Amino acid sequence: MSPRENFEFFKDRINWLVPDDPRAGIRLGNLVRVERLEAPLRVAERLGLPAGSEVFHIRRLYKYERETTVSTFDDVYLPAGLFPGLTEEMLRKTSDAVRSLYPFYESHYGLAVAYMEDEGRAVLLNHKQAVFADVPMPYPAISVERRSYTLDGRIVELRIMVSVTDRQKMVQRFGTDPRDLKETKD
Fold first, then answer.
1. CB 27 within 8 Å of CB 17
2. Where in this chain does the record put each UbiC transcription regulator-associated domain (predicted)?
3. Does 182 reside within a domain?
């Protein structure tokens, strides 16, 4: 299976936040920032970069189409050396860039994500997040930190997703869903 076919197979399994209310609609993303900056020390460490290395920081906010408040804050950090010439305009022109960055990485930079590692923990929203989520402070959330790797083991991204979980839940699916199997009757 090619990396793109692999992504197509797993795409619904890696974006695993589901609204509690099925009437909330689909999850919509909004690209709000793309900047090149010196990596904060923790980001550099998690990406395996020397202190002072440059990264691209991409911020996206997600909400459900029938809701007015943000449900997930998504901060993505990319090693600048792997993404020469990356601009906000490039991301905005690519329809996948808000839904998923992985096809963008592959089509523009030849970086196919083959492996992801997620670590989750309970956190409190910061003031800005609480305002966007329209909740009081302190307010609990779950933070998932993802590191994504290429087949040859290079770290492509560090992603930190902070999600308000009183309106959505985390669902992970592993293996083949029996409902996806089609029986043939003779």
1. yes
2. 27-169
3. no
C-alpha–C-alpha distance, residues 51 and 42, integer Å: 9
Token pair recorded at residue 135: 């909740």
Give me the CATH number covering residue 99. Answer: 3.40.1410.10
| pLDDT tens digits, 91-117 | 988 766 666 899 899 989 999 998 899
pTM reported for the whole predicted model: 0.85
State how many domains the chain has: 1
Answer whether 19's CB lies under 8 Å from 167's CB. Answer: yes
118-133 pLDDT, tens per residue? 999 999 999 999 999 9
CB 55, CB 47: distance < 8 Å: yes
Tally: H helices and E strands in the chain: 6, 8
Scanning the structure block, which residue is given the tokens 């997040």? 129
Q: What does the alpha-carbon distance between residue 64 and residue 28 come to, in Å, rounded to a whole number?
A: 6
Beta carbons of 144 and 17 less than 8 angstroms apart:
no
Phi, psi (degrees; rounded to nearest 5) at 27 = -80, 130
* pLDDT higher than threshold 80 for residue 181: no
- What is the extent of the structural domain holding 119? 3-169
Q: Which residues partner with 157 through β-bridges?
A: 148
